[in-house]
Design brief:
Strand order of the largest sheet of chain B: 2-1-3-4-8
Radius of gyration of chain A: 15 Å
CATH topology of chain A: Rossmann fold
Distance between the termini of chain B: 41 Å
Strand content of chain B: 5-15%
Helix content of chain B: 25-40%
Largest sheet of chain B: 5 strands, mixed
Helix content of chain A: 25-40%
CATH architecture of chain A: 3-Layer(aba) Sandwich
Oligomer: heteropentamer
Radius of gyration of chain B: 21 Å
Number of helices of chain A: 4
Strand content of chain A: 15-25%
Structural class of chain B: alpha/beta
Shape of chain B: globular
Chains: A alpha/beta (144), B alpha/beta (332), C mainly alpha (128), D alpha/beta (263), E alpha/beta (664)
Amino acid sequence: MQVKEYKPLIVAFCCNWCSYAGADLAGNNRLNYPADVKIIRVPCSCRVNPMFILRAFQRGADGVIICGCHPGDCHYTSGNYYTRRRMAALFSMLDFLGIEKERTRVEWVSAAEGAKFAATMNEFAQTVASLGENKRLEDLRCKK
Amino acid sequence: MQKITRDQLVEKAVALLSDGTVSAVLGWSRGEFDYDITPAVFKSAEEVKENFVWNDFCGANFSKYLVAQTGKVEGKILVFLKPCDTYSFNQLLTEHRFDREKVYAVGIPCEGMADIAKVREIVGDGIVSIEDDGESLKVSTLYADAPVLVGAKDVMAERCVNCKSKKHVAFDELMGEDGEVIESARFDEVARLEAMTPDERFLFWQNELSRCIRCNACRDACPACTCEKCVFDNPDSAVENKAPANSFEEKMFHIIRAFHVAGRCTDCGECSRVCPQNIPLHLLNRKFIKDINEFYGEYQAGAEVGSRAPLVDYTTEDLEPGEVFERGDQDA
Amino acid sequence: MNKNFIQEEILRSSGVNPKKCMKCGKCSATCPAYDEMEYHPHQFVSMVENGDIEPLMNSKSLYRCLSCFACIDRCPRSVQPAKLVEAVRLAVVRQQGKNHLTANDIPELIDDETPQQLLVSAFRKYTK
Amino acid sequence: MKVSYFPGCTLKNKAKDLDEYARKSAEVLGITLEEIQDWQCCGGVFTTAKNEIATKLSSVRALKDAAAKEQPLVSVCSACHNVIKQTNHAMQTDSDFATKVNNYMAEESLYTGETQVYHYLEMLRDLVGFDALKEKVVNALSGKKIAAYYGCLLLRPNGVMQMDDPENPQIMENFIRAIGATPVLYAMRNECCGGYISMESPDLAANKSNAVVKNAVAAGADMIITACPLCKYNLIKNGAEIPVVYFTEVLAEALGVKEDTNE
Amino acid sequence: MQRVGVFVCWCGSNIAGTVDVAAVAEALKNEPGVVFSTDYQYMCSQAGQDIIKNAIAEHNLTGIVVCSCSPRMHEATFRKTAAAAGLNPYMVEIANIREQCSWVHKDMTTGTEKAIILGKAAVAKVNLNTPLTPGESPVTKRALVIGGGIAGIQTALDIADAGFPVDIVETKPTIGGKMAQLDKTFPTLDCAACILTPKMVDVAQNEKIRIFSYSEVEEVGGFVGNFDVKIKKKARYVKEDICTGCGACVDKCPMKKNPNEFNLGMDNRPAIYIPFAQAVPKVATIDPNACNMLKNGKCGLCARVCAAGAIDYTQKDEIIEEKYGAIVVATGFNPISMEKFDEFAYNQSKDVITSLEFERLTNAAGPTAGHLERPSDGKSPKTIVFVQCVGSRCDACSEKGKEYCSKICCMYTAKHAMLTRDKYPDTDVYVFYIDVRTPGKNFDEFYRRAVEEFGVKYIKGMVGKVTPEGDKLKVQASDLLSNKQLHIDADLVVLAAAIEPDKSARPLATMLTASMDTNDFFTEAHPKLRPVESPTAGVFLSGACQGPKDIPETVSQAGAAASKVIGLLAKDKLTGNPCVAHSNELMCNGCSSCERVCPYGAITYEDKEFRMPNRTTKIRRVASVNPAVCQGCGACTVACPSGAMDLKGFANSQIIAEVDAICK
């Protein structure tokens, strides 16, 4: 029987204006990060509904990271401030339910921070990998 | 054990109906059992005199019913509000959920309501009748020869033991004396859970939430859950989910439900009161309230009409989501 | 005593954050005892900030602050220099034998009209 | 109405008249000053250091005594008022300090700054009302040009004292108007007289006191009133060319009870 | 069901080097809805685009997925391609398999696997795409400028110059603002009136510009391109179109003793007045609080002497309603009150003045006809002390002043000091400073000249107390560099008071739903890249309403705001971003959560009647989004508990489909 190497699955929600561009810059500069990271483009980090995050965990994601413009630099002036409050509350709640707090993260990445994007993803993927598979929030039906 | 009597409430309702101030009364009526009190709309003095009930099981928070009833009744509707109900009342006004002009709100004092589960713990099953006997309840069961006397204080609902306020924040008229906001110990249980390891917390919630049968009682009783259509009932929401298929689904339901009411929940405790599985759902709401208080300053939803809920507000100096845990680590 | 320890102690007991100072000198501009002082209020702020506290502790300036609180009220940055002077002074008089005034000195210093308040205040400021 | 009253050491000795006039006048104004039982020295100067506890305990005791009677605490001497008010503020806002104080006192009930602290002037303004005072005046001091000397302790630090605008106060001027005299405005009214420095450095004190008096005289004052025994001492000792009296004295005079007092 | 075509780009070897593009195309063939899948070397090339166009026609495609470089690169290109083939451009989704795949991963297996997943996510999303049409709204080709100072004047002139009509609303009886009160301007020292008044005349004579002086904005409705504004023209009791500004009434008015606002109360004006000689419009105004005729019906002298018959005591406030395409805020600033800074004795002595008062004292048209005289006794001051940073740079908890640097004070103080020394060389001039801040062209040179050529004594330190005594002001100050306390007997003390936004700005911001910072300065849409635009579409910022500014900066910002307005008004129709929020009114609770988080004020509420069971109806409050104002951030969608609010192009269902595809 073949032992499959454990690879964490990470969903990254990136705002269109800063973080998605930061990810592009990481690409332009050929900065490697694990292929386990899959990016979903949203207009602003404040578009990320907690439902999306839970859904990702439900379907087997091992970590979810939300990236937005730095506070004060939001393309929509205030979107990331709402993100900050919502996610602070949500992550604290997930922790309260016993979900490992290392599986969720918010990081501010500007369009100029390709290196930060890659470093963040490397570090996050490593952290999540060290936790092992997400067992506490997954929907077993969805696991093959 | 209530200071205000049924007769006083009936007299008030009848008077307001007769002089035309109101054309309907939102009140409690008997359900199948003595402890199974049901909200009802009374349209006449006769109905009130006959069916109006007031006892230690009248916990139902009527604020929510105003959303539907104010649209149905011609003229004003009389609602009796216990102190904790008035917060929900204000919160719904903040959210424009009913027309204040169509309501005549009478604030009534509350000495705390009984929890039938606690009664059962003492007397066992097969409760036939419960009579209020001043400081205690006289409970007759199928299996006991004589009625059992149960101390009203001993069976008081958790939310009343940890009552956060005896003050009415909204009313047109007040019966009895107004009280004060209370420094309660309502967050102690949350703090206890916070002090556990994540594994212990996970086990705790796994045990609690796995009992959920998705009956939606919590949602239906919650005065913050007054959505015209709940996301979980909406096929377009992509999370539509009528019944739990596995352990994750109810977790998602309860997390999202708590998140949707976060900053708006007044901590009235109806969710836990109506839960047939006795899941301490209010702890999820209190966790949000406690966090919000600690992160963004004290906020009591419904204390004032028109206040801005913390999650639709921000300051540029708010703490980062990551710092939430650094704080926790320091405390631990 | 360790220099950093004293600095920390002074910052802690005074509750002052000298980093807020923008070096405008309004404290010294407002100080009624300026001319009697070797180190002036703004110097207390910057010297404490720099950990240069020894000279302050040895200076008579400590006993010239009148506790008039004018520097506290007029500082545009809410630095509260008087609280620093007070903290340094306490660091000195709390040491053994460092009282600046003793009861023996009193008879020479008073007259018939001297109010009790003067004695009490002076003792409070000059002694442990 | 009844209020708790903290006279302070000087009012029992060198400034007996400040005390006597205050009591007689209060009586006329319908206020009973109930002297705190066994009060002790206020401490003279408020030590701003957060870790200075013992010297503030006597103030806390007085405050607590008033709290037990649910009365506001009134004092006349600027220094006492300043120390008591600052101590009360520390009890309200510095929980660390309050805890230490309460532990030290080891009494059954805790104190966290509930008492309302009034200076006698604030009592006149807020509890009696200057208009009501005006009505009680039998002997209006019309024609008198009086300079109010605030000094430091009534006004500062303003964040705590909250008596009036620390740079442009009006309370004493309004008081002067209420007793029928004319207030004289001058800039040095909120500057220091030299305080306790007169012990060690009489020259500096003389310097400061002279500047105050000179400025008041230049502004046309023919009398200076103060609430502080030390201010009065410094101003007079350094040769004030116009009379310096306690505000309670002119109050008693206006209310027609000055003579009774001297008996 | 969509008919989706998948197009995998090699990008030469950029993608194909790390991703097996053929395998990706093959794998995506089996995804739901996919009816065509291919790969090509350069999809963005003409040939590549033709492949897409042909496939659309051949396979009746309703949706397109291009697996290629970042959408930030070529999304627009492929949307145009789709549109050219008759497909709605918003039926295109891009899977970013270059920047976020081939360029960051090294081996072919990993790259290919990930590319397939990204492709699947894009297919899952496009399956739920709906054709979107950008909303169009007409543009009213008229601009409103609120505030008639130099900022408003310059903006209005520039807009009018481009051929668009402009209205200026000014609360005072004349335009001109603060600049009209100034004497000389730094660093060139040309006289303010000489450069301002010609511009004021230009405004008056420009056919495209209407001036509503003595008027206020009362109400603002509508949105970018279509603002509905109500302007209240206050009764000035003089018929503006008839008054010739001859001034006969002003001379004859018996009520002469009213503080003259223009001279900051340092002299008096009659009840009927023209603020200054070059006022625009040069029309008299009656102060209703001072006029005997208006107060108790006795007098009427001005009406009698008015040859033109312009006086009208019965005039009433008038409301003017007008439509505008763009609104420029130019409400300017005021010096803060010196009430709380009485250690400087501003309330105690007439000879302690603010810098703006000093401007009037040295202005030839001022109360002293330009002779520097002390307000108290008219003597010429021999020693003048300037105090900088009064109320600026204060700590937030000091509750006395402002936290920010007022920016203009260092330069105008240098100007005042220099001009005083120039005109009155026997005067001692001291400037107490904390820092001298002179970034600006020729600014530091100017300050150095004040010191080196004119002998102004700059002292690093602050004034602690000013004591008026006799006819002197005793100034007690610190000289930090020589470590001394100074005592100066001055004749005049001039305070460089901090400046703050005009009080009218706050209510105006509410009307405009434009955001403000904690100091009541208007917030710009982006601090660096959109400095003259408010986040609220169609609202622009000019001058000190956005932050402290000197005249050169104000004028350049005014021009910038004008060019933005011209760019907007030049369009016949505004095409919006179609990816905007919309509310499903059947589910909306009307709770206002969405409105509270909307940075653009795009959400409004209306009471709507809904059919209920049993032929009843119910009136409910529901949200509606103005697509012309919404910028599509999506903050509202998360604030909405019922899920009634969704975002076109990034719908809940679309994002969840992507999540599902990725996590499968």
